[in-house]
Amino acid sequence: MIKVAAPVILPQIEALSRLIGERIGLDFPRRKWDMLQRVVDDLAAESSCPDAGQFLKELLDSPLSESHLNELIVRLTIGETYFLRDKEVFTVLRNHILPDLIARKAPEKRLDIWCAASSTGEEPYSIAMLLDEKVEQLKGWQVNIQASDLNPDVLEIARKGVYSNWSLRATPEDKNARYFTQIGKNRFALAPHLCRMVNFSQLNLATHDFVMPGFGGRLADIIFCRNVLIYFSAELKAQVIKRLTALLQPGGWLFVAPSELGVVNEAELNPVSFPGVIVHQKNEAQVFSDKRSLSSVNSGVNAACRYADIYGGKKPELPIAKLKLSRVTAVAQKLKHSIPQKANNHNSTQNESAVSQFAAQYMLQQIREFFAARNYREVVELIPDDFATAGRKEPEFPEIMACKAQSLANSGEIEAAATTISLALETDKVNPFYCYLAATIRRELGDYDAALDFYRQALFLEADFIMAHFPIATLLKQLRRKGVERHLRNVENLLENLNEDAGLPYNEGLTAGRLLEISRSLSSQVLKS
Description:
Layout: H1 6-23, H2 33-46, H3 52-61, H4 66-76, H5 87-104, E1 110-115, H6 122-133, E2 142-149, H7 152-160, E3 162-163, H8 173-179, E4 180-184, E5 187-190, H9 192-195, E6 198-202, E7 220-224, H10 234-246, E8 248-255, E9 269-274, E10 277-282, H11 335-338, H12 341-346, H13 348-372, H14 376-382, H15 387-390, H16 397-410, H17 414-427, H18 432-444, H19 448-461, H20 466-478, H21 484-495, E11 503-504, E12 507-511, H22 512-528
Parallel strand pairs: 1-2, 1-7, 2-6, 7-8
Antiparallel strand pairs: 3-5, 4-5, 8-10, 9-10, 11-12
C-alpha cells in the first residue's frame, strides 16, 4: 500500500469528502477521513498512478467517471447483513404487520414491498420466506417485492442467491433445510422460487425525488430502509425520510434501524411499539393502533409515542426514574396524553417505572446499532453520566455498561473502561463475556494477575469459551507460566468442530480456520522451546 503523508493530501481528502456527499450521499466528517485516505491509497495502488496524492488530484480535477464512482461505492458501502437479522423485526412482521395488511388489502389482493438498502439480498429474501409461509392465504394475490442498493457488486451477489454459512447463522434449521441447497463447500443456493419473488435494481437514495423501481407509480405497503440512514448527513436523512413517507401507502409501514428512529420526524408517521421493535405507520385514521394496544411497556401506556431527536431531545413529560436523559431519545411529546386516565390516577409509580424501562430498552437498541457501526464515541456520549447510579435497577444496565466499557477501550480510554466494566460485573457477575472484557482491559493496563483471574472466571462460567482460552494461553506464555499447552489444546479441540470460514464471537474478522492455524503455530513454538 502506498503511504502518503497526511498534510500533502488533507485538503484533497476534504474535497473528496464533499464530492462523495454530493454524488453518493454518504457523510464523511473529519473523523472518518482516515478511511477515505485508505480507500484512495488502495485505488492508487491498483492503478497506473505511482502516487496516491497525484491519483487523488487527477480524480478531483476531472469529472468523476462512472467506473471511479462505482469503485468508490463498492469500497465505501460494504455492509454486514444476514438472513433474518434482528429476529424481533421479522417476528413482528410475521405475527402482526402481514396479518394486518392481508386483512385490510383482501379486496384488492395486492402487496407491494420495498427494501431500499438491500445489500447482498438477505433482507428481501427473508421477507420472501415469511410470505412463502403464508402462501395459502395469499393464493390469487399479486405480491411485489422490490429491492435496491447503491452498490452494484452487492446487487450482483443478491441476484445469484448463493450464500455462505455466515449469512445463514441466524436462520433456523427448518428454514435452512426448506429454502437452501448446498452446492459446494460452504456455499448454499437459495430456492429458485424465492429468488424469483425479488427484483433487484441499483438506486441512489441521495437523488432528489427518487422513484421506487418496479412499482409503476403505485405506493408501497411496507418499506424497509435499515442501517443506511446513519451514514447520511442530517439534511439528507430528513430528505430521504420525507421521500420514503411520500412513497408509502396510507396505513403502510416503515422499518428503520433502532439508531435511526430519532431522525423519523414526519408528522404523517406514527411510531407503534411492539416487543423489542418500533415501526412507523403512515396516517390512515390510526387503522391499526386504534384496534388494540401494542405497547411493550405495559397496558397503561399506549404504543403510539413520538420520539425527539437523539441529540438534544425534548424533555419527557413524565419523569423517567430521575434519569437525566435529555441526550437520549426520550418518550415523546404526546406520551402523557396517551396514558389512560385510570393509569394516571392510580398507577403513576408503575407507569414511571415502565417508562423508565422503556427508555433504557430504547437506549440499548441505539447503542447496539452505534457499536455495530463502530461509532464508539457516539456510544459513550449517548449514555448519561448519571445512568451509572440512577439506572442500576434496569435489566439493560449491565449490557449498556459493557458496551460503554468496550467503546471506551476502543477509543483508548483504558482506565475509564476498567471502571465502567466493573459496574457491569457488579450487577451481572455470571456473564462470561463481561469477565472476558474485564480481563482484556486489565491486560491492556498491565495488571496481568487480575487479567488472568478474569479469564479464569470467564472459563469457569463457560468452559467452551474459545476467545478466553486463546488469550489466557498467550498471556501465560508471555509471563513464562505453566498451562499454555493445555489452553491451546482446548482452543484447537473446539475449533476443529467449526467450519473454517465461521466467524468467531468477540473477535471481528477472525475466522475459525485462521485462529486454528495461529494456535497450531503457537503450539509448535511452545513444544520447541
